[in-house]
Each structure stands twice: as C-alpha cells, then as structure tokens.
Amino acid sequence: MEELITNAPASWPTVRLKGFVPSNRPEHRKANQLHFATAVESSFRGSEVQVLEADVIRITPGGAVQVPLRVRDKEGEYDLFFYADPDPQAAGHYEALQALARKTGRFRPIFYSTDDLTLIYPDPPAEPVARRDRLYVSASLFPTKGQYAMWWAERPGERFLLSRTYEIYDRIYHEVAGLETSAFAQILLELEMIQDEEEFALMTSVPSRIEIPLLGPEGVPMVASFSPDRGIRFHLHMRHATSEYRDAFLELFLARMKLWKKESPTPRFTIADSPPLNWWRSLWKRLQGNEEEQTAEVVGSLSR
Asked: Which residues have CB under 8 Å from 258's CB, separation 6+?
C-alpha cells in the first residue's frame, strides 16, 4: 500500500492506495479513479473532511472539467484529481487546471499522486483539461418548480443590454444564424431523444415552440427552448443558478456550436434568412428605445 503525495491541507488524513495501474491512459483511468475514491472515502471517514460526490462535472467559461472527487472541510469545497503516473504530462495537466481555476474561480484543484507534481517540469497535457464537445445535460422528468429565465439582475441597476449574458447570446445568435434547426438537433442528439437531424426537422415542420426541462452540469435545473421565430434559448432556474454559472454554460454552448460547425459536414437544414436573428436584432432595438424595458429585472422568464 503506497502513501500518496498531495498538496492538500496538512490537517487532512493521509491517503494510502493499492491495486492501481501506474498509468494515466484513458483505458486505465476509470478503474484507477474508483480505487482512489474508495481509498479517500475510507481515509477521510470520521475526519473533518467530508466526501461530497464522485465523477462530477464542474463548468467553467473555458469548458467542462471532469472532477474525480469533490470534498468539503471547514474552509470550503475542493476538487481532487488523482494521477496514477506522475509524468510530465500529468504535471502539465495539473498546471493547466490550476491556471483555469485561478482564472475562473469556479473550482479548487488538489492533486494526489505517487510523486510531487509541482516538482516535475510539465509537458503539454495529452488532452485538454476542459472539454467543449458536450453540454453534459440530461432530460429532467420532474423539473424543479420555480422561476426560470434567460437573464435576471442580481444587483440593483443591472441591465440586460450591458450584461455578459447579452454579449454571449449575441455571439450565439450570429454563430447559428440560419442553422437553428440543425443546432438545436445537436442538443436532442446528446439527450438521445432523436437519431438524426431529419427526425427533428419533421417535428418542426409545423411551427411550434418546444420546451425541454433539463438538468445541466452540477445539477442546475434549466429549460432549453426552441421556436422557428426566436431560435434557441436557455432558461435557468433563478434560485439554483448564479450569473457566473449562467454565463459559463452559455459559453460552453457557444464553444460546442463552433466545434460542431468546424468538425461536421454542412448542416442539412439551412435558411438564407434567419428569423431568430431578426428577432434578436428587433429585441435590441426595442430595449434600446424603451427606458422601462431597459431596466427590466428579468428577461425570457418561464414558470414551472
């Protein structure tokens, strides 16, 4: 049984591990993480450190980070990463995690390994620390009751047109202009609600509004909506989502759309003119010209 080296607080219990494969390769990762989670849970039992959950997604403006284990002590929550092989790529991966954490403030990475990663000269990681190829959403059969919205003010005087949320939505509407049907189909494909884009095109042959309750990364309730005239929008639960989370999720969706357009063949369902983009531009004009609407505290609200 090997004692793991870590940069965790000195007051935390020591973690000892056996039976793992000294490799960070994807085919060994799942088994190694299971061994690690079991060892941590056993070591921390009865201590001030509480194990919260395993194999979770933390969302950041840079993408979605897969976290093997989350814990909490009296100082707050931490995200634990296990590196079975402390090689330069592992050091580079952890260094990139730290940089992302400093930039976003959305997670606190702690490493465990058989050597001190901070003393190893890092190489670029073999894979990105934050993924942008998925939204990590799932359909919600029993949506959380409450108020949902595209945007809401968290402090007096905040305005939608001056918000980071408006800026990201503006980029989304321009990015998917004319491709809205195919773009929303990518969400349904991830949810395994359809098999191909044509199936969704048949569903939308008669103009209608579609609303799908979802659980987003970190378990945040939201509703994805689509209509031929207003396009794709996300309405997040106002009590469960922060403005930082809201903007990080929209950034993830924007990155997902850019990657989809780059890697996929030309979408089958395109239109020369984009009614959703026209609606978005008209919304901007309306808000600009109406002081009362400019100071609205909620935009795109839904009730459940």
From this structure: 175
The pTM assigned to this predicted structure is: 0.88
Alpha-carbon gap, residue 49 to 47, rounded angstroms: 5
Q: Which residues contact 53 (CB under 8 A, 6 or more apart)?
A: 69, 70
Instruction: Collect all residues with Cβ–Cβ distance below 8 Å to 192 and sequence separation of at least 6.
Output: none
- Quick one: pLDDT at residue 104? 87
- Do 139 and 225 meet the contact criterion of CB atoms below 8 Å apart? no
Lowest-pLDDT range, 4-18, 32-46, 57-71, 254-268?
254-268
DSSP letter string over the chain?
A: -EEPEE-S-TTSPP-EE-S--S--SHHHHHHHHHHHHHHHHHHHTTSS-EEEEEEEEEEETTEEEEEEEEEEETTEEEEEEEESS--HHHHHHHHHHHHHHHHH-S--EEEEESS-GGGSPP---SS-SSB-S----EE-SSPPPSEEESEE-SSTT--GGGSHHHHHHHHHHHHTTT-HHHHHHHHHHHTTS-SSHHHHHHHTSS---EEEEEE-GGG-EEEEEEETTTEEEEEEETTT--HHHHHHHHHHHHHHHHHHHHHSPPPS---SS-HHHHHHHHHHHHHHH-HHHHT-SEES-EE-
CA-wise closest residue to 104 among 253, 255, 245, 241: 245
Check pLDDT > 70 for residue 108. Answer: yes
Taking CA atoms, 9 is separated from 16, 112, 196, in Å, by: 16, 12, 49
CA angle at residue 284 from 281 to 290, to 5 degrees? 140
- Above 70 in pLDDT, residue 204? no
